Amino acid sequence: MVHLIEEEEIALLTSIVDAQRTLQRSQTAYWGRAFQQYHRHVGNASHNLNACQHKWGDLKPKLDRFKVCFDRVPRGDLTHDDRLEIAKIKYRHDRNLYFFSFFRI
Asked: Is 0.70 surpassed by the pTM of this model?
């Protein structure tokens, strides 16, 4: 068990709170930039930042599962697009395939 004196505990708690604030600010900046980019692509969209964050929460696990499929396709002599097509076949059971275009970047 680690024993900290009161001053050390206060310093540790202060550091953690500061780190959390910094992280929150960086996440806020990240989502602010993402939301601006979204509006540039979509134009006059009716969705707000919270709706976009919620949707990302839905899409992220699907994107992660697709990435696993994509990463399992051997590179060999295949082009990126060939690997993408093979990964799509492996992931075909899911109907939400519209995010595949992200892998063409």
From this structure: no
